[in-house]
Amino acid sequence: MRRGRELAQALAEMGYKPPQKIIQDLQQARITRAVYSERQLQEVMTDFWFNHFNVFIQKGADSVLTTSYERDVIKPGVFGKFADLLKATAESPAMLFYLDNWMSASPNSRMAQYRNRAPLGRFGQAKVGELEMPNQAAQQPQRRARGINENYAREIMELHTLGVDGGYTQKDVQEVARCFTGWTLRNPRNNAEFIFAPMMHDNGEKTVLGHKIPAGGGKKDGEMVIDILAHHPSTAKFISTKLARKFVSDNPPQSLVDRMAQTFLKSDGDIREVILAMFNSPEFQAPENYRAKIKTPLEMTVSAVRAIGAETNGGPAFHRWIAQMGEGLFMAQPPTGYPDTADHWVNTGALLERMNFALALSGNRIPGARVDLSRLGIEERAVNSANASQVVDKYVTLLLRGQISAQTRATIDKSINDQLLAKTDTGAPAIDSARIVGLILGSPEFQRQ
Prior knowledge:
The protein is 53% helix and 5% strand. It is mainly alpha-helical.
């Protein structure tokens, strides 16, 4: 215990933060940017692409690598060329570590031959110096490599580009895995950075989706795969579908997806052009797609703060609510990330959690968040039987643009009347309008984008 405290103190003196503090800081930064940034679309797209190219922050070194992954890899590319973003993620230490590609080495590589020929020292490790070795910086990942790993090869096709029905085979997975051997890390557990290690690479000829990749290409093998996948028609369709599902509806119109996919192919995968094609489409403006999407927990909590002019530092207490609703930030463990459809977010438990958050926020019961309802310009603070309906009308107009179903309105009115009756029976003063705000923020209508 004492040794652990001494180590933590030494690391702190050197400027290093404990992994849990790094995670909390990153979550806090995501929330505060979502609330206060003047570039809201960029923040939404950063969230979208991080989820698309997901890594799990609690997997080993990714607890410290994820910060630079979001800041230096994802965010700069959210409106650029898809091929550039794909390449940046492929070379990212966070992705290489998360999907274990940093350990992937061909059994036919020079490194494997070295391991088979070198005399063994203590613990069964090859003796350094008996044979010619690569530079010292690359030795650690080489020693740890254990054959070809297909994780990244499978996910780059199934989740990042083509989609599960994109037309690839298991043979393609194997060939792509061969192409990415040697894409590894220098110092994987301490300030990791991407390197290509020739001694780990499979130098043979490969065939990916019918494209021949010549022998001896080295790092270019992986770059050719990225180019093939980024410009494939299945990728255009898959990415367009995901974007339309994010912004339009859970089941976007095929006509919209086709138009976006055509733009993707014609523009060399220009993400900005694809988004503009979506925003300018008749499908995006169609009445049936108005407020068709359910907010994710992050979107719901952030929109509630913004709607009532609250302030928050986005700290652990605020994030805890998001996590309780099922969307711990950077905490999606599988490479699929979080689903972006209503059936994942809408259930009895989740809706109750959203209502509890709304009431806690409006009632100033969340540490690190502050609400001043007087900023909304509504004078009535105390609600009684004489003004209750009028106060509800004002807040519904302000927070929902007056768009509320008869059922929801009846539920809110009943809740308020029940509270007023209880207050009257006990001789307590009228209820605070904060409860009305909470009920509206927790209503089904506010859960829609």
